Kinesin-like protein
Amino acid sequence: MASNVKVVARFRPLNEREQRETGGALNCTFTSDKEVKISGTNASDDKGERKFNLDRVFPPEASSRDVYDFTALPIVEEVLKGYNGTVFAYGQTGSGKTFTMEGVATDPEKMGVIPRMVATMFEAIDNADEAIEFTVKCSIVEIYMERVRDLLDPTKDNLKIHEDKTRGIYIGEVTEEYVTCEQDVFDLLNIGHKNRSVAATNMNAHSSRSHLLFIVTIQQKNMHDLSLKVGKLYLVDLAGSEKVGKTGAEGSTLDEAKMINKSLSALGNVINALTDPKVKHIPYRDSKLTRILTESLGGNAKTCLMVACSPSLFNEAETVSTLRFGMRAKSIKNNAKINQERSVEELKLLLEKAEATIAQQRQYIVLLEKTITDLGGKIPEGKLPDGAKANREEIEETKKEMEADEEEQAATTEKMIQLMDEIVEKREELRKQSDHISELKREYAKLQEKLKMLEEENSLLVNRVADQTVASEQAKYDLQEMSDNHEQLQMAKKNAETELQVIRENHKQLLDQLTEKDSEIENLSTRLQNAVSDLAKLKTLIGSSANDVLATKMDDGDEGGESANAQVARITTKLHQKPPTEAKKVAADVAAEFEQQSKEELIRQVTELQRFKLFAVEQMDTLKEQNATLRGHIDSADGGKGGGVEGAWAAEREKLNQELTSKASRLVDLEMALLEERERFTQLKATREDGERPLKRKVGQLDRNLEQLTIMYHKLVSQNSGLKVECQVNEKKLARKEQRIANLEKSLETAKAKYEKLLQQCANLTSTVESMYKSGAAAQGRRQNMQKPLRGGGQRQRGSICMASADHAKLALEAARQADEDAATLEVSSMQETPVD
């Protein structure tokens, strides 16, 4: 069935460099879903535009799902029918070829052609008839520097390309892995990507340096008629064409660019030759790429070409060249046919049908000959009619063919018997190996379970040791804290004892001062008693002579005032001669004593004057009574004796009046003298206070300064003691911290050593797993007959097979992860630190 190559174009969004170079300017216009116009500096018409018509044009906003549904989905469906199919992406470097083919496998919106193709393929297998048995195998190769490398087995770095009549063009000794689910395919793709050659250029940070070919072979066997169909799908991610001026390639990258451009030029030459009817020779052998894709370009395949383009004016020349390449490829015609092989059973059925037909024809011939004979006719022996002769010749040829077919069938049967014997032997060997593998898996599962139990016990022991270590460290820390607190209490006790001793001394001093005050009080009491006795004596003196008393008192007052003034002057001089600290104490004592004496003297004088006043009043009352009595006597005498006596009593009365007047005047004089004495006392007191006020202020200031200095001294002493204690405690804490740091450093070194050891073990495990996988892949390549058939509609079975095939890798990854967790746990337990403060 002849069909043209389907060509679609996909334009990607602008990247940062294109926006920077052109300011975001676009050079393409999408007039329809099949046409694009390119406008730029090298236009081919007057309007400055070039038109390109393709099977489909996808703008930058087109989704990956739309691209897949139009381009690859029909090819995959045809492959499932038994046709060969090819989907490959072409374009300049950085144009989005790899993204279109692969995309992001974990994102449903951004998945590329390959992940969607895998899902479609296994979905079709699940929905197929249960009588159809599928076998799917994959291989991944790259063409790097014109060398075919097996990405599933990197040791095969220069595979050869072969051709025969039955298989066509194929890659010899390539690793073909049988797959049963999507995850198997993705695992193979991950392995291939790890081994693929990539490099960074100015146009693409992950530029592919080789052509990637992902080959999927799907074999279908109908269990009813035993027919067999084989479809092969090529998914090709071509390396991008490069301009060295833009990519900045140099060194080995430049050599790779040269080989990439050379192989792409060979591909262009093949397409040009296929589209030019005058060319008789197609140069497939000019490149490994074109040699492998011979059937895809003008041969037995259905092909879809996706050209990836940039919409930026910066890449105008490359975009136009890519679209022209697609336009030329659109003219290629392929002749695809179903790759169906007839099995021995099917050939036997056809042979039986042919033999039955021949038997019927022979019976018909015999019947015709008998009929002719019965009718009297004669059948010539030498010559036969043309029809009969033709039938006879056909019969003879059929007999010969049947004999040849029988011989071929016998040979084929013998060969089939040998093959069946070999298959039986291989199946027996496979069964033994499967049993052995199952036994190894069971032993491995037991060992894994035992290892898991040991790891759990080890983890518990590690946690217990860590807890015990933490508890021990905490106990040591608490004990040290208690020791520090005990030392602080001891220091506080010593300070308290010192302060108590000081308080006791102060108390003793206060007791001494109290004793002195008691003695002073006793002295004052004695002096008071003496003053009372002196007052009694004063009363007797007042009765004898008032004038003498007044004179004496006034003299005493004058002498007292003079002596007080002299004493004040003397004390002031003495205070000025003393230092401030001694002057304070002396001034306080003198002031207290002087004030006490002044008060006592003043009280004594006032008391004596009051008593004298009372005494004088009493004397006046007595004299008034005597005067009244005398007047009574005079009146009585006047009545009895007459005028002789009246003169004598008048003289006596006059005399008494004079004495009374004299005493009254003397009393007034005494009161005046008392007032003067009070004024003098007040003046003396004011004078003393005026003299003492600066001294008191100075003494008070000195007293306050002394108190402040004393308080500051006590505070400094207390602070000094506290600082000494705190300094000692901090020194001990610092020593403990240094010891703790040293221990932690040792623990850290030990943990690092153990961690490095675990990392080395993980690396060894990883290398062991990789070597096991490589050896398994090599063994798989050596025994191609270890197929994994899939029945249509067998989704559950396929899922279980897929899970079983991934057990080994999961167990290896779990072991590596567990090793990392053990290392991390060990490091954390060794680094765990209790607070010291």
